[in-house]
Design goal:
- The protein is of the alpha/beta class.
- The protein has a single domain, classed as 3-Layer(aba) Sandwich (Rossmann fold), CATH 3.40.50.
- The protein has helices at residues 2-25, 50-58, 78-86, 110-120, 134-148, 169-177, 197-202, 214-224, 227-233; strands at residues 67-71, 91-95, 105-107, 125-129, 151-155, 162-163, 166-167, 183-189, 205-209, 239-244, 251-254.
- Strands 3-4-2-5-8-1-9-10-11 form a 9-stranded mixed beta sheet, sandwiched between helices. A two-stranded antiparallel sheet has the order 6-7.
- The chain is globular and about 50 Å long.
Length: 255
């Protein structure tokens, strides 16, 4: 137990050093007019407010750290489902390439994010980073999540950062060894065909909304079995098929 505590202290120290460097040397472009307001950042709920503290009090920590993938067409309910899945999680970092998340502290500058995180690294948080240059900044955020640990890392358009032929070392650590750092990963993509096999091989849960793309259908059939075809054909708008590792049955739910 002492070794685990020492290791956690080392992780926090490394994360603090990392964000200090990012905050000082960030090359990310700050969008014109982007700054925090009196409430904290962009008009979102701030720590200490009734709604924020209520969410923190109700938050639960997942016992098993897993990888969850969500696939489907734009507007099908993917981001809404992700918000539901993370609603009661105590510590969440969202890499929001589409600007769809508002329930938390919203940042558009690495320096602002790093300075806030440095002050709140041990507490509860819901941080939403909307990058100005998603591909260039992703590895920095993935490394920060890896060093900090004990959080849920939610990534929109995960196929951009985890293509079939390319994946960065920091994100590879999150995928392969994230559970040892108490990291849950939730990845969202329109196209299951376009992501790295490492990611799908490590996934414990997969949610699939309606999709008609032949290559995606074929990919899902090879990944999950022929049953998925009939399930997808029978689904209505905003319904999803849910596959769980170790369970034979594919269930249907609604976002």
């Amino acid at each position: 137990m002492d070794i685990l505590r020492d290791n956690r202290r080392c992780n926090y120290a490394a994360a603090r050093d990392f964000v200090k460097g990012v905050g000082t040397n960030s090359t990310a472009r700050k969008p014109k007019g982007s700054k925090w307001d009196a409430a904290g950042c962009g008009g979102v709920t701030s720590p200490g407010s009734e709604s924020f503290s209520g969410n923190v009090q109700a938050a639960k920590t997942m016992t098993e750290k897993i990888i969850t993938l969500i696939f489907g067409k734009r507007g099908g309910g993917k981001s809404y489902l992700a918000a539901v899945l993370t609603k009661q999680i105590r510590r969440v970092l969202v890499y929001d390439t589409l600007g769809e998340y508002r329930d938390g502290f919203v940042f558009q500058d690495l320096g602002d994010l790093s300075r806030f995180w440095k002050r709140n690294i041990r507490g509860a948080f819901r941080l939403i980073y909307q990058p100005t240059n998603p591909e260039a900044e992703f590895e920095d955020i993935a490394e920060l999540a890896w060093l900090c640990g004990d959080l849920t890392f939610l990534v929109e358009e995960i196929d951009i950062f985890c293509s079939p032929h390319k994946i960065g070392p920091a994100f590879q650590n999150v995928i392969q060894r994230g559970r040892h750092h108490d990291i849950n990963l939730i990845g969202i993509s329109q196209r299951p065909f376009g992501i790295h096999r490492l990611l799908t091989s490590q996934a414990k849960e997969i949610y699939i909304f309606r999709t008609n793309e032949p290559r995606d259908r074929e990919y899902l059939r090879n990944l999950l079995g022929t049953e998925i075809e009939a399930t997808l054909d029978g689904m209505a708008q905003f319904e999803y098929a849910k596959w769980m590792d170790g369970k034979e049955e594919i269930t249907v739910g609604k976002a």
